[in-house]
Amino acid sequence: MNKIxxxxxxxxxxxxxxxxxxxxxxxxxxxxxxVADNASTDTSIAILKRDFPTVKVIQNKExxxxxxxxxxxxxxxxxxxxxxxxxxxxxxxxxxxxxxxxFDKETKTAIIQPKILDFKKKSHFEYAGAAGGFIDKYGYPxxxxxxxxxxxxxxxxxxxxxxxxxxxxxCFFIRKEVYHELEGFDADFFAHQEEIDLCWRAFNLGYIAxxxxxxxxxxxxxxxxxxxxxxxxxxxxxxxxxxLVKNLPLNQFIxxxxxxxxxxxxxxxxxxxxxxxxxxxxxxxxxxxxxLKFNIFxxxxxSSLKANYFKLNSIVMAYxxxxxxxxxxxx
Length: 331
Fold this sequence. Notes:
Spore Coat Polysaccharide Biosynthesis Protein SpsA, Chain A; 10-stranded mixed β-sheet; globular
C-alpha cells in the first residue's frame, strides 16, 4: 500500500478534471489517487471511467460541500497520509517527496502545506494559502505571501520550512489518524475556513502544522465559488465566528467578540460604500446565522483550549492603519 492518498473532491468539475488530473497522475507515482464526487450532475463520472481508469472513484450520495464531502469520502481511504487537493490544482515534479519525508521524520507534525502559487500568474503567490496561514486575535486569517488583497511576488522570501497555524484547504496534507481523532472537518461549516478550524483543533491537542517550500503547486482559485460571490462573503464571516466560539477559552472569547462585532460592521459598510450591497447584506446574514446557531457551536467546545498564542493582535490595524502590507513587514 502507498503511504499517501491524493483525494480530489469534485462537484460538476468535468473540465477541471480533464485539465488538472493529468499532472497529478504524472507526478504522483508514489501515491494512490482518488476522486471523491459530490453527486455531480455533469459527465464527471463518465470522464473518469473513460479517460482516467487508474483513478479510484468514491461517489458521495449528495453534494455535501467541502467539509462533509471529505468526511464521507475519507471513510474509504486507507493510506496513512492524506493529500486533500482541489480539482483546480496543478502539481509539479516531486511535490509529494518532501511531504512524505516530513511526516516520516517528525511525528508531531500532523498537517503540512506546500507553496501555493497562482496558476494564472505563476510568479506570484495564490490567495488561498500562499506560503502558510495564521490568524490574529480576532480570528481574521492572513498568510505569508498574502494579506487581504495584497498578493506578493514569489522572490524566494519564503523558501523555507516553518511552523504555521493553518494550512490551506486547496492543498492540505494531514495524517489519517489525526484527521479521524479530530473527527474530520466540521460539516456545519459546509465550505470555507473549515481547514482553519481543523488546524486550530489540532493545535489545541498539541499537534503542529508546517509549511514547506520544497513542495510546489499552482492553484486557479475561485473555480467553485468566485470571490465576487456574496455567498463566499457570507460563509467566510459566519464560519470565522463559528471558529471563535468553538476554539477560544471562554474569557478570551467574551473579550474578542465585542471588538469583532465592530470590525465586521466596519467591513460591511465598506462593502456598501464600494457599491456591493449584496456583500453588505451577506455580513449581516452571517451574524444573524451565528446568533441563531450559537448554542450548537458553543456545545462543540472542548476542554483543551489554549490562549495567548496569536502572532498578531490585529491584522486589520496592521494592514489598514499601519500600512504593513506584507508578512515580513509585520514581524
